[in-house]
## 1
Amino acid sequence: MQAYMSQCIELAKRGSAFVAPNPMVGCIVVYNEKVVSEGHHEFFGGPHAEVVAINSLTKDIDPRQSELYVNLEPCAHHGKTPPCADLIIEKGFKKVVIGSLDPNPEVAGKGADKLRAAGIEVVINILQKECEHLNRKFYFFHTNKLPYICLKWAETKDGFIGRHIADLYSGKQISGEESKEFVHQLRAEHMALMIGARTANLDNPKLTVRHVKGRDPLKLIVSRNNTVESSLRLLKEGQTWIFNTLSAEEVNGLRFVKLNRHTFLEEMLEYLHKQGVQSVLVEGGSQLAQSLIDHGYWNECYRICSPLEWKKGVPAPEIKARETEIIELGSDKVLHYLNR
Ligand SMILES: [Zn+2]
C-alpha cells in the first residue's frame, strides 16, 4: 500500500505551482495489483484527482474489483465540483486507501465515513506524515488560521545578504541558472511574495515567475511609514498590497492596508488568513526576515549560501534552528529549515 501511496504523492506534486489554495492531490486505481489509471489535481478550479483517474479508466476495468488510492481524503461536500466520494460510491470501488484526512475539522473524516457507509472498505493514514508534509501549507493554514510563511534569502560566505537575490546571481559573479530556477519555482509554489519597502525601493524587482512555469503570485510590501515609490516596476502589473500604518485605500489593483503600529505583524498575518492567502514567500530584506524569525512567525526557510565573500554589506538574518536538508545548486548550498 505504501508504494502505491508514494506514487500518489509524486503525481500530486505535479500540481505544486498551479493548485493553491487547493491541496495537491494524486490518485491511482489498482486492478489485479496493477496500476490501471492515474490522475492529479492540475490547476485551481480544475477537476479533482479522483475524477481524472476514474474518468480515464478503460471499459474493461471493473471498478468493483479495483482499489482506489489517494493522498488526501476524497471530498464529501459540494465545492466547485460535485463530491468525489459520491462518484467513488457510484462506481462501486471495492476499496479506498487514503493517505491523510482533511485538515478542516468540520470536514475531516466525513469523506471516509460516507464511503464506509456505502459498504466500501476504507483504509486511512497510509504514509500519513508524508502526505501531511506534502500539503503542509494547506494543513497549517486550516489548522492554525494563519498563512504559511516561508523565508528565503541568499547570503555570502562571510554572512552578508544580497539586497536581493538578483544581485547575488546577476552578472559574472555566479552562473546560477539552477539557483534562479529554484527561486522561481519557490515563487510559483506560494500564493504571495513579500518584501520590505527598502528592498522594493532599492532593487525595484518585478516579483514575477519567469524561469519556470507557474502563476504570478500576489505581491505584498511591508512599509510601516508608507514609503514605497510609486514608480516601482512591481506596481505596474498584477495585484499589490502595501501593509502600512497610515492609509487604507484601494486604487487600480494597489491596496493599502492600514495596521496598528504595536500589533503590526499579528494583524498582518490575521489579515492574510482572512483574505485566504494560504502561503507567503518572504524574499527580504534582512530586517523583515529577522523580525518574523524573532516572533516565531515562520514555517520554513531556504538559506542560499554562496561561496562569495563581500567583506561588507547588510548582515544576513540569524536563524537558530538546525537545517533539515542541504540542497546543492552548482557552487551554492541551500540550507533548508523547518520550524517545528
Ligand atoms: Zn474531490
## 2
Amino acid sequence: MKKNVTVIGGGFGGLSCAALLAQDGFDVTLLEKLDTVGGRARTWAEGGFTFDMGPSWYLMPEVFERYFQLFEKERKDYYRLLPLDPYYKVFFGEGESAPLSPRQEENLALFESFESGGGKALARYIDQASYKYEVAMKEFLYKDYRHIGQFLNLRIMTEGLRLGIFKKLDKFVGSFVHDRRAKQILEYAMVFLGTNPIDAPAIYSIMSHVDLKLGVYFPEEGMAGAARGFAKLCGQQGVKLITGEEVVKIEVKGDKAIGVHTTKGFYESDIVVGAADYHHTETNLLSPDYSSYSRSYWNSRVVAPSMFIAYLGLNRRLEKLEHHNLYFAKDWNGHFDAIFKHPAWPEDPCFYLSCISKTDSTSAPQGGENVFLLVPTAPGLDDNTAQREQYFDMLLKHVERVTNEDLTDGLSVRRLYSQRDFIADYHAYKGTALGLSHTLFQTAVFRPSHRSKKVQNLFYTGQYPHPGVGVPMVLIASEIVAKVIKDNYAP
Ligand SMILES: Cc1cc2nc3c(=O)[nH]c(=O)nc-3n(C[C@H](O)[C@H](O)[C@H](O)COP(=O)(O)OP(=O)(O)OC[C@H]3O[C@@H](n4cnc5c(N)ncnc54)[C@H](O)[C@@H]3O)c2cc1C
C-alpha cells in the first residue's frame, strides 16, 4: 500500500512539494482553505480586470526550469514566459526617472550618469554578485541544514567570509557606489526578502545578479497562471487537490502525526507537510506540547513587512508607466525605519506599481490599465477601514506627484487589501506578507526547521524555512523537503 501524505496549504510551497511526493510514489492529498490554489499567487477579477493578487516578479527562471526537469517535463508546456524590456522603471522623485534595461551597457551608462566611475563600479558589483550567486546555488540554497555545525564549519566560514555573510549589505554597496540613486537600485530588492539593507547580510547582493543579469520575466497569464501550471502538474502526478477545506488540527499520537482534522472531516496520514503559514501551523494546528518553537521564539523573530495594496482598474492607458515601476524616497533609511524600527504608516512611502496590462492584454478591458499599487508596511499596524481610506487618498496624491499620473482619472474598479486580509485569508503571522525577514540570524540554519522537532513525520515547506521568501526559494524548499521524505519513507 502506498503511504499517504497530507499537504496543508496550496500555495507554490504546497503545490510544488505535493507533485514531487506524488512522483516519488506517495498517495498525496493537498488541502487548501481558500476556493482556489496558488496561495498568495491567486487572482481577483472584477469588471473585466483580472488582478494578480500577490507575486508579480518572475525571477530566477532557471529554478523553475530545473523544477519541471525533475519530472522530465518542460516548463513551456505549463505556461509561457515573456521577457520584459525594460525590466523595470525607477522614479526618484522631482520628475526624475530611469529604466533598467536587459542591455547591460545601458545600465552601465545610467550608473555613469549618476557618478563618475559609476559604470565600472556597477560592472564590478554585478561580477561579484554573479560569483556569489553561483556559489550560493551550488553550496547553500539546495542544502538541508539540520544543525548549526553544518553552517558554522570551516568551509562555510571561509566561503562565508568571501561571500559576505558576515558583512552588511548597505555598507558593502557603499564600498562600490556613493550616489543615492545607484545605491537604491542595488538595495531595493531587499524588500523582496522582507528585510532592511542596513541589516541584511551582504551575500544578498546576489539579488542584483538576479534582476539585472538573469532578467525579469512575466508568465503569460501572470503569476497565478504559473501557479495553475503547477496545479496541472499536480493533477498529472495524481495529487488530489481539495480546495475550500481548512485544516483545523493535526492529530498526534506519541511522537507521530496520524492525520488532520478539517472543517469537513478527517484525513488519515502517514506523513503531514505543513505548507501554510508556519506560525499558524505550529500554534493553532498543533497542541502546545507538540510545537517546536515557543511563544518567545516567535515574539523574538524579525517579521517581514506586511503590505498595503490597491488593485485598481482604469479605463484609460497610463503612458508614463512601464510594466514594473518603483519609487525610491529620498529618505531611504526613514522608509525602512517606519517598517522595522518605529512601526508607522510611512509618510513619503516608497512604492511598487505594476501595470501588467502593458504585457498582458487580457488582464484589462481594451483601452484600460490593470494597476497594482503596493507599499510595504510594518507588520502588526492598526488596519481599520477609516485608516485605509485615508492612507489610500494620501497615496494617490503621492503617486501623482511622483509619476505625473492621476490614478483617480478613469478609475472604475478598486479594492484595498492589507494586514487584516493577510490574517483572514492566509492566517499570516502579524499580517506579514512574506513571513520572516532575511537577517543573518534568520538565514539558512537559523530559519525554522524543515522538520518538526517533536513530531517525527511532520515536515514544513513554504516561505518560512530555508531558503526563504519568494517563489523560487519556496520551490527549492519543497525540493529539499521532498528529498528528506523520500529518503526516509519512500516505498
Ligand atoms: C503582495 C505580494 C507580492 C509578492 N511579490 C513577489 C514577487 O514579485 N516575486 C516572488 O518570487 N515572490 C513574491 N512574493 C512572495 C511570494 O508570494 C511568497 O514567498 C510565496 O508565494 C509563498 O508561498 P507559500 O506556498 O509559502 O505560501 P502561500 O502562498 O501563502 O500558501 C499557503 C497556503 O496555505 C493556505 N492555508 C493557510 N492555513 C491553512 C489551513 N489551516 N488549512 C488549509 N490551508 C491553509 C493559505 O490559504 C495559502 O493558500 C510576494 C508576496 C506578496 C504577498
